[in-house]
Amino acid sequence: MIRALVLMLLVLSLTTPGPSATVCWSRYEGVEHTVSHFKGSTVEVRDLLEVSVQVAQATGAHEVSPIHILAAAVTGKAVDGQNLAKGTIGKILTEAGLLNEFTQTILDNLPGHLETSGGTIVVQQGNQPLSLSQVRISEATENLLKKANEVKELENSNSGNPNFMNNYISAEHLLLATLQTPGPIRDFLVSRLGGTSMLAKIGFDGGQVKTAKEALEKLIRQIRGNGKGSFGATDADASSHYERVEYKSEFEQGRDNEIVFTENLNKRAERGELQRVVLREKEVAEALNALAARRRNSVNIVGDVGVGRESLVYGIIQVLNAVKANPDSPLAYLVPKSLRNLQILEFDASIIQAGTKYRGTLDENVQQLMKQLKGCNGDCVLYVRDLEHLEVAGATGEGGGSGVGQQLIRELVLANGNPKLGLRIIGTTTTKGNVGFRTSTLGKFFHEVKLEAPDKEITTQILALHLQEESLAFPILSTASLESVASKAVEIMESYPSIGDRLFGSLKLIKEALLVKETMLRKQDPTKFAEYSKLKDEASDILSMVSEGKMTPEEANAIIQPKIDALKIDMGPREVVLAAVSILKGAPVANIISQSTRMKLAELEAIVRKTVIGNESLVSRLTKAIIASHMRARSGKDPRPLLTYGIFGPSGNGKSTLVKAIAEALGIPFDTIDGATATERSIIGEDSSFAMEKSKQDHLVAKVRNQPYRILYFNEANLSNPKIFELLEKILEDGKLTDRAGNTATFENTIVIIDGNVAVSELRALGISEGKEPTNEQVDIMRELAKPEAEREFPEGSVSFTPEAAEIMREALVRGMGNRPALLGRIEYIDYLGYLGPKQLEGIAELLLRDVNNSQIKDKGYPIEHSPEVTKLLADFGMQPQNRELGARPLRSMIKTVVDPVLSDIALNPRYWNEFSEFTGKIKVVIEVQNNTLVARIVDVTEKEANAAE
């Protein structure tokens, strides 16, 4: 028999029950001894111990631990079919609003996996029924039962009531004993019963109840009530005398009882636990009027992510509490009289369905919720996030019945708009989620309140509110600077939406600005920074108190803000601008502060010349054009690129190398759009349905949205397809592009450089050929040739260019740009290059050989040297007709072809390596010319040469 199986757990040597009884527990006595002596606990405790054996067996344990007993208290059924979760422990936890959390904590910490069906423990397959000799109580359980007996005796001695007498150990004694047993269950009870919010919830002054133990004892007294149960466990069936926990409206009962599966947000707001919000009166009034309507009186707040849907609900609660506290409040006009006592209860469908297979069906939970809502007499409204997910919530659960949404539909139909029949909902959906929800069965009961993104004024107010909270983490912002900083952030967001939406982007920007100011303060004023650091530590301690609920944000600000004002650190719009530059450029704050853009531009040409050989005139013209584009005044509404520069002529003359060098010198990203391979997808992304699913957007529009400061290099644009020319023209004319997901990027902070292999023969005819760069006069002429005839203004001395020659040149350029003269006309600067000459190729060869040498010394420790004839041979090789259009690429290939075999020989020769794979050779590699051929060989070096090399 199951009852016999459990009674073997305890050996209770017990005299006649009473206050002086002595209890002796033994873990190893026989079952017969247990049955005959186990009379010192209530029937409920015996049932718990009996079911705990089933729990232990179901989880594969061979002894009963305290957690098995507690699991039985919230998941099992007694032999007579009684649901143990409705027993004393369940009542206490339900009264505290902790039953669901406690059950989940038990299940999370229970060794093994517990399967139940309709409240009956299911022994897992493979777990054979345990014999009586196999089951015993654990040492921890033995200690728990001893403590429970001590709790009982202590309660008798401290009762102060001569009629109070515990003759039996009852379930509440087990719970009090658990509070004295170290472990995760004790930690849960201490944290949840000892908090200020719990003390307020069960109706006590925090000064009177200071510990979780006192809170639990008070809950027990409430459960025992004023009847027979108030005299203690006087008989074995004591729990049946305890008062049944009934849930009534707080307006009927005058108490703050929480409705199951919900949390009262009005009460949380009164305790200062909800975030402060800026009131949006129009939307608040619309929502409250809808809730007061006779029909269709549930509300669906619809808006995109980040527009403040949850904040609107908090604003409604703010108004309700203000009007309830002061009926003559200026906000009273927003609240209909029928809603003056309205309470908003946060509801999570996952909680009501969680664990239903352990404690009863989902239907029972919903009915329990509805019963309590009806007790509110129409003064309770459920708040549900993400309504679009509600209709299917729990529909496939194992608790039986249909989903939560289907149950609520039924209740809405039955209520027929009458709030006193129980159910009204205020919920939120995204714009996308509402498309399906509004046409669903549940959606037809809701009035839609459409919420747009806050305007500039409201956003500034919201930011100022957030900044007061941020001042606890970064105590820099004085009261006087709050509004100016918030206003500047919103202004920047209007111009640079790529940082984020107006509100969250502004918050991101200001947080970055706080870091900027902190960095500047550390570098510029160490003394004040030390004072600031001390204040920051103090603010951190206060912030911890706020997070622990020991202080409200308002109280914290009242302490910190005067000290921030006294410190007099001027944090203002300048730091916000620097932060915007840091975010948009993707550069660290320290770099932005230490080296300004002006300094980088001043040194740009010198930096580029270190890595670019030849094209001196082009380098000078291009860098000066970039400097001019940054320095010139621009209209705030001009979205076009900072600079559009065209370079035409044959390939292989170092255009790509030049553009890369400029990007590296400026410290900004560099994107190459290759005309031969570029597609629409690479510019504007996939089609909208696929683009929405892709987590990584790597097309040009997405890149510019994320980091607007970029160089866009359209390489060999003359090979592009017509669609690419069309998109390029939009960039140059409109300054913006929209991808297929609907996201728009502005190109006002980009530098666009276009190269095309066009007009080669025309350039040669003008004398711009091998190694000869065009003169400034020739460049000016070429620029004029690119314009329509009516707009040309040739410089003096250029009369030798006949109209026929000019038209031939223009036609060549238009042809190279996809037969789009308008596109050619939108390029601000046009430059021309011929092929590289021998002198330039020699310089490039020297640079390539130097790079190879530096790389090898760094990696292996031996040098690569070359004779003077090598660079001349490489230059001659680059001048051969088949290599003319390839620029430096043939030179790089020849060096690699000659050097790599020698490097491989060195890597495989054991003479140069020790047993630890460390290079020990005393050698160098020499590249030289033999019989008009480039060769490389290994040369041993003397000790003196090796030391000199090191």
CATH domain class of the largest domain: Mainly Alpha
Largest sheet: 6 strands, mixed
Roughly how much helix do the residues carry, as a percent range? 40-55%
Counted by DSSP, the helix tally is 43
Number of strands: 22
- According to CATH, the homologous superfamily of the largest domain is Clp, N-terminal domain
User: What CATH architecture of the largest domain do you see?
Assistant: Orthogonal Bundle
Question: Tags for this entry?
Answer:
five-stranded parallel beta sheet; disordered N terminus; alpha/beta; six-stranded mixed beta sheet; Double Clp-N motif; Rossmann fold; 950 residues; 5 domains
Describe the structure concisely for a colleague.
With 950 residues, the chain is α/β, with parallel strands linked by helices. The strands form 7 sheets. A 6-stranded mixed β-sheet has the order 7-9-10-11-8-12. Strands 14-15-18-13-19 form a 5-stranded parallel β-sheet. Strands 20-21-22 form a 3-stranded mixed β-sheet.
Structural write-up:
- With 950 residues, the protein is α/β, with parallel strands linked by helices.
- The protein has 5 domains: 240 residues, Clp, N-terminal domain (Double Clp-N motif, Orthogonal Bundle), CATH 1.10.1780.10; 193 residues, Rossmann fold, CATH 3.40.50; 139 residues, no CATH class; 235 residues, Rossmann fold (3-Layer(aba) Sandwich), CATH 3.40.50; 112 residues, Helicase, Ruva Protein, domain 3.
- 50% of the residues lie in helices and 10% in strands.
- The chain has 43 helices and 22 strands.
- The strands form 7 sheets. It has a 6-stranded mixed β-sheet.
- The longest helix is centred in the middle third of the chain and has 23 residues.
- It is elongated, with a radius of gyration of 40 Å.
- The N and C termini lie far apart (89 Å).
- The N terminus is likely disordered.
